[in-house]
Amino acid sequence: LTETGDCTLAICLSRGSATLAEAQADAYASWGRWTDGTIASHGALGWAVLAPSRRLSANQGLHYLVGVPSTTVPTSGQFGYTLLGATKPTFDNGSASPGSFSGNAAVAFSPGQARIGLEGLVTIGGNSYTFATIGGARDPSTSALSTDAGRNFAFQGGPGALGCAGGSGCTVDVSGGLFGPDAARLGLSYEIAPAGRGSTISGVGVFQKQ
Predict the structure, then answer these.
(1) Cβ partners under 8 Å of residue 142, min gap 6
(2) Which of 5, 81, 127, 186 counts the highest number of beta carbons within 10 A?
């Protein structure tokens, strides 16, 4: 990925002098991280003034995930998803070296809806943070996280659909979607806010249906 956004209508960002890290792609999804350089901001009607160019250190990153939305999905059954690839999680302020991410996912399909089961582990800055939906990847049918009509899902902060643990406490936001024919891929973007750190942790991961 070399550019994101819509330069003709609002703000777009180009990789500029930033380097590309953890970049992977297949027929259904592409993901990676811009880091260690200056990201350039562009936009029509002066919108770029609202998002000036940003210098990223080697400990920081702008994580991206793009995919081909699923137009067909199963209407029944439960499927496990294994991690295909992920970016190294980073603190927004670059206060620690990039960490590691591991996880599992599962989806329980029914007509018109898919319930998403997630389990994630982020290790960075000497601490580990875990997040999981109710039932985890073992029983996605009990998860409170489900897709919308566009095969996307999202959850923001606090207890409920997702629990977060680690350090002195944390909250987590996630968003993502199902990609490829018959939901062949599940893509996930997460942002963890550890208590007392003053900076959030970000990353993306892509899972493959088994």
Answers:
(1) 115, 134, 135
(2) 186
Give me the amino acid identity at 35: T
β-strand partners of 19? 35
**Separation CA 36–CA 57 (nearest Å):** 4
Q: Which two tokens stand for residue 178?
A: 């199902």
- Taken as a whole, the chain contains a residue count of 210
pLDDT, mean of each 10-residue run, the chain (210 residues): 72 89 97 95 58 86 96 96 98 97 98 95 96 96 94 79 90 96 98 93 98
Q: Is 139 helix (H, G, I), strand (E, B) or coil?
A: coil
Distance separating alpha carbons of residues 119 and 141, to the nearest angstrom: 14
Neighbours of 89 (CB within 10 A): 27
Burial of 177 (0-12, 13-18, 19+ CB in 10 A): buried
Angle, CA of 186, 188 and 189, to the nearest 5°: 160
